[in-house]
Amino acid sequence: MIEAEGGRKARLRERLAASRETFLAAARALTAEELDRRVGHESHWTAKDLIGHVAYAEAGMLPMIAGAMEGQPPRYTPDFDIDRWNEGRIRRAREQSVEQLLARLEESRGQALALLDRLTDADLDRPTAHPVAGDTTVEGIFKIIAYHERSHAKDLRASRDTARADG
């Protein structure tokens, strides 16, 4: 069965909307005290740090799509350190309020959807690369963005549940 042009984009929009709604609900459910608690037993990030991480992540992935659209081959930088990159973003995020971070999320989502609107289904198949996921496509990057938000929403909910069980 051949899918109508734009059907994949519509599904991506739905996936992005659902993941964002899930993440925002988890973030907004946290109290000020819960925002300052560490997320997980092995992490040094607080819940607010995790919100900051997500706030910077989407905008950080959009250049991977732009590069693919400009015909750049997928690029791997052997010395790229995702942990160092993330820590740099967390340091920036710590200087901002949760509301500023959520506004950053809204801005990056607007950019992502504007980019998605310009793409054809053929564009979604263009190859690109993600520093953790490896070889993927433009569509794959949009899916990674959504997965990333859902995954960290789960982390925020677990942190909240642990804090409330301990309290």
Explain this structure.
With 167 residues, the protein is mainly alpha-helical. It has a single domain (7-166), classed as Four Helix Bundle (Hemerythrin (Met), subunit A) (Up-down Bundle), CATH 1.20.120.450. It has seven helices and two strands; from the N terminus they run ααααααββα. The chain has helices at residues 7-28, 32-35, 47-69, 82-94, 98-118, 121-124, 138-166, and strands at 127-130, 134-137. It has a two-stranded antiparallel ribbon. A hairpin with a 3-residue loop joins β1 (127-130) and β2 (134-137). α1 runs parallel beside α7. The longest helix has 29 residues, at 138-166. The chain is globular. The model has no long low-confidence stretch (mean pLDDT 92).
What integer value in Å does the Rg equal?
17 Å
What would you call the structural class?
A: mainly alpha
Report mean pLDDT, rounded to a whole number.
Answer: 92
Morphology call: globular
Total beta strands = 2
- The helicity comes to 55-70%
CATH class: Mainly Alpha
Helical segment tally?
A: 7
Q: Predict the CATH topology.
A: Four Helix Bundle (Hemerythrin (Met), subunit A)
Strand coverage percent: under 5%
Q: CATH superfamily, called what? A: dinb family like domain
